[in-house]
Sequence to fold (225 residues):
Amino acid sequence: MRILLIEDEAEMARLLASRLASEGFVIDRERTLADALSAARGSTYELVLLDRRLPDGDGLSVLPTLRGIQPGVRVIMLTALDAVIERVSGLDAGADDYLIKPFEEEELLARIRACLRRPGSEVQPPVVVGALTFDFTSGAATVAGRPISLPRRELRLLEALLRRARRVAMREALFDAAYSNEAAVQPHALDTLVWRLRRRLQQAEAGVTIHLVKGVGFALTEIEH
Fold:
């Protein structure tokens, strides 16, 4: 199960990510609202842990856009703002739950389990192209049932390509998915990343290739025999 953690306090984010990973969750951590939205456009999440006070604004301000990108995602607000009016505003803005800092990890885990038990929208099923299968919930890729290990950037790129499998994925969307939390990355870096991913998939005999659609983006399709 994949969780997006939006928290700018480095030590808290590290501790939470470590504990959640030990419980079997796949964690993506972002520190700003802008980076969080880029991550949401490139990956599917079952739950978002969203801090109120972030470097580029109030976490509440991003909720409508986040819901537009992923309508069924669960959102738990994490904040030191403990006034009743703050909790009410968070819930009224669309959060599923609201947890005041400091909190015990066990309570957070209980609230996560409660949120995930509630009925929600369907999770995107695994996609199969050639011999390649990708599970959007776990973020795992397999080739003919064998796991394939990919560096984080390549995995994000693969996921973004497979969300538009056999169709063209826009260059800008792929760049955001691969480099959402990195500064000063040159646009041509995407071409190098695509080349690396293409070569890795060929070596794994995945039966797929990545085509360049000049001036538009890339498309992942089966290899035609």
User: Anything to note?
Assistant: The chain has eight helices and 14 strands. The helical segments are 10-22, 33-42, 63-69, 84-92, 105-117, 152-162, 171-179, 189-203. The longest helix spans residues 189-203. Residues 208 and 223 are 5 Å apart (CA to CA).
